[in-house]
């Protein structure tokens, strides 16, 4: 279960995910030098809007995709605060794939199919040359997002090009205890409906 995991924050302190029981979570593998880095603005807007209602964002920077999260944890946090006003929780830089992957991510990747759209498929074709050895459920790029309900259930996985603004409607439903409906096709060719 999600709440069984203990992770390191940006200051290398142990944080139990059980601290987030009863909250709606968006877990993201961010990066400071990625084409999707401006999504930090959208993420912060979501946080400002919904944090008072029980919403949290957990950012786990990863340098696995073309070295797009260089620097120390302190440098990453400083960049995000200075450039985007990030106030949500940032964690220690991790691997999201491979033999050194963070156990939390090993778990997350088994919990939900990825919502993709036509643009996602095109983007993944472009970056495939940089990620040739990925497994079926591996994270394909920075800013993959996992949405977690108040009970700790991973209810959706969103491809990197799916913006925070596109996820907002699902966050609202979870905060209101409504179910969200995201139907994914196993071949991802058509994305999800």
Spatial order of the strands forming the largest sheet: 5-4-3-7-8-6
The overall average pLDDT, rounded, is 91
Dominant shape: globular
Weakly predicted, low-confidence segments? 185-193
Supply the CATH superfamily name.
Glutaredoxin
- For the record, the CATH architecture stands as 3-Layer(aba) Sandwich
Main sheet attributes: strand count, strand direction, barrel closure: 6 strands, mixed
Could you say which structural class the secondary elements and strand pairing correspond to? alpha/beta
**Roughly how much helix do the residues carry, as a percent range?**
25-40%
Whole-angstrom Rg: 15 Å
Portion of residues in beta strands equals 15-25%
| H/E topology pattern | EEEHEHEHEHEEH
Ordered list of secondary-structure elements with their pairings:
Layout: E1 6-8, E2 14-16, E3 24-28, H1 39-50, E4 55-59, H2 73-84, E5 89-90, H3 103-108, E6 114-115, H4 118-127, E7 145-148, E8 154-158, H5 164-175
Helix pairs in contact: 1-5
Keywords: Oxidoreductase, Peroxidase
InterPro entries: Glutathione_peroxidase, GPX_CS, Thioredoxin-like_sf
Pfam families: GSHPx (PF00255)
List keywords for this structure.
single chain, 193 residues, alpha/beta, Glutaredoxin, six-stranded mixed β-sheet, 5 helices, 8 strands, 27% helix, globular, disordered C terminus, Thioredoxin-like_sf, GPX_CS, peroxidase, Glutathione_peroxidase
A few lines on this structure:
By secondary structure, the chain is an alpha/beta fold.
């Amino acid at each position: 279960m999600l709440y069984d995991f203990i992770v390191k924050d940006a200051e290398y302190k142990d944080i139990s995910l059980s601290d987030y029981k009863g909250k709606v979570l968006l877990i993201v593998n961010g990066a400071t030098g990625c084409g999707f880095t401006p999504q930090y603005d959208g993420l912060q807007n979501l946080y400002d809007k919904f944090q008072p209602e029980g919403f949290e964002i957990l950012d786990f920077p990863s340098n696995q995709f073309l070295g797009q999260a260089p620097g120390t944890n302190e440098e990453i946090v400083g960049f995000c605060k200075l450039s985007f006003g990030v106030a949500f929780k940032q964690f220690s830089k991790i691997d999201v794939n491979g033999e050194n992957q963070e156990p939390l991510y090993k778990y997350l990747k088994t919990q939900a199919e990825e919502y993709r759209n036509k643009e996602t498929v095109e983007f993944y074709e472009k970056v495939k040359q940089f990620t040739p050895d990925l497994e079926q459920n591996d994270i394909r790029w920075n800013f993959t997002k996992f949405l977690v309900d108040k009970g700790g259930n991973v209810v959706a996985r969103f491809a990197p090009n799916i913006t925070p603004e596109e996820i907002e409607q699902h966050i609202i439903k979870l905060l209101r205890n409504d179910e969200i409906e995201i139907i994914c096709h196993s071949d991802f060719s058509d994305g999800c409906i």
